[in-house]
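Morning!

This is the sequence you dropped in the shared folder:
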Amino acid sequence: MAKIDLAKVGKNLLKSADSGEKVELQSLWQDQPVVVFFLRRFGCQVCRWMASEISKLEPDLRANGVSLVGVGPEELGLQEFKEGGFLKEFVSVYSSRYTALNVLPAALGKKVREISSKAGAAGIQGNFKGDLMQSGGLIIVTKGGEKVLLHFIQDSPGDFVPLDDISTALGISATVKAGQKPVCNDDVCTR
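The structure's back. Tokens below.
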């Protein structure tokens, strides 16, 4: 895991999705540990599925005094994302981009096709509005920013942190089970 300068990173400004207020990223971990989920795009079907998966941990996180916050790169698609209920608390904006050379093969790769299939089977739709070159990730920070427990940046749009890894990093027990990834065959993942 790469060393992260939380004091420097924490100064980045985010905009509250509810109030419009600008807050520093470090305010998210000031009073409690936090899981910060960085979405690629609010309209991304895969991101929506990942958000619905990580949201399964919310009751266990809350019971252990841990906050879960989603951060998106732009406001485009935010209202539709909120109405879909994929995550309860989120802010925006950040920026970390793929290059054209690595996003296209990754977006068409097996992991993305499998998660898109799973999302579709769960009734989760998406769109292609917004910055398609955006990357996502996840960071878990202890209260007061004393330590980074987990730091993850997507190499591919289909990369995500399993729920067990999140609860293990936090040292908590989770009562939920991760959704099953779909099995690719001629009917699924090839359309």
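Headline: The chain has one domain: 6-170.

More detail when I'm at my desk.
O.
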